[in-house]
Write a structure and sequence with these properties.
By secondary structure, the protein is α/β, with parallel strands linked by helices. The protein contains nine helices and eight strands. The longest helix is centred in the N-terminal third of the chain and has 21 residues.
């Protein structure tokens, strides 16, 4: 079972999919919004559309060297919503509703192992922080969860940095905020490319949170609490 290396002095966590999760799921919320304006989409169709739209935007960001901004994030999600909910009478109104929804703490739930894991690290004198591909809305979400308060002062948001994970520039900001050398920083996340491979390419340690396991990564935990177990 992988745990933190003894020389790690700082741990930064990914947000969505690692510490926080949409509740209900994003696909359920999308379908509910569509249904509210008269478009009834089967769950499988919502998923298919969403994934196709998401991949298109990921490819666009990859081609742009992972550069981003508040404007780009809003444009990106507008495109995803419009493609996913194609056929609704007012896609802009649906986008506004969804964009506002995911800015609220009530739209999210916290990993039950987050608080004890973070507190354990803090008690050991380890610097803790957060690194997310998100925009300014993340701050309002965090404000609703006091158990994540130890991460608040060291929160790296891609739209503010100007680059998304897995860009080296994103992880450079993580290292800067940690106050440590890159090799003394561990990044914990659920995405192989963005979190695991991106962090390692930038010289950080990395741990992949993969409840079902992932044979392509050497350092895998099934639950967050295993990080300090």
């Amino acid at each position: 079972m992988p745990t933190l290396r003894s020389d790690v002095r700082a741990v930064f966590f990914d947000a969505v999919g690692t510490l926080i999760f949409p509740n209900p799921s994003a696909l359920v919320v999308y379908a509910d919004v569509a249904r509210g304006v008269g478009l009834d989409l089967p769950p499988d169709e919502v998923r298919r559309r969403f994934l196709a739209a998401y991949r298109t935007q990921e490819n666009a960001d990859r081609a742009a060297g992972w550069a981003t901004s508040e404007e780009r994030e809003r444009t990106r999600w507008h495109a995803i919503v419009c493609e996913t909910l194609a056929g609704v009478p007012d896609p802009d109104a649906c986008f506004d509703a969804l964009y506002d929804h995911f800015a609220k703490p009530a739209a999210w739930t916290v990993n039950p192992h987050a608080a004890p894991t973070i507190n354990h690290l803090v008690d050991r004198g380890v610097v803790v922080g957060l690194g997310s591909n998100y925009d300014a809305r993340l701050h309002s979400v965090l404000d609703g969860f006091p158990e994540l308060a130890p991460l608040r002062d060291r929160t790296v948001v891609s739209a503010a940095v100007g680059f998304r994970k897995p860009a080296a520039e994103f992880f450079a900001e993580v290292v800067r905020l940690s106050g440590c050398d890159a090799r003394q920083v561990a990044f914990v996340g659920d995405d192989v490319e963005n979190d695991f491979d991106g962090a390692r390419a930038a010289g950080l340690d990395a741990v992949l949170l993969a409840p079902r396991g992932n044979p392509d990564a050497r350092r895998v935990i099934g639950e967050l609490r295993e990080l300090v177990g």
